[in-house]
Amino acid sequence: xTEGADLVPQASLAGAKKWRRYPAYKDSGIEWLGEIPEHxxxxxxxxxxxxxxxxxxxxxxPDYVIKYIDIGNVVGENGMLTEPEEMAFANAPSRARRLIKxxxxx
Length: 106
Hints:
The chain is an all-beta fold. Helices cover about 0% and strands about 25% of the residues. The chain has a two-stranded antiparallel sheet. Strands 3-4 form a two-stranded antiparallel ribbon. Strand 3 and strand 4 (about 35) form a beta hairpin. The radius of gyration is 19 Å and the shape is elongated. The two termini are about 15 Å apart.
């Protein structure tokens, strides 16, 4: 996990985003990651995130409709999402009963 969000997209002629390089880089110490911007830190994900344990109550109406995003809804290299699957609470697996808020990473 890295910190530092000063990469700025700049428009290219093709309309796709292109990223400017940072002025200096360093070895991350992780073979598959390679070099990272000099001012970034490498940290284990478990030390910088919190797991969301908020779920719908077991008393929720069995017919309540949930919009569920499964790993199967993430497609392509850019991680685009397909439409969430809709299902009744009674048919939803426990992982589909998690509540998310704005700015959560799913």
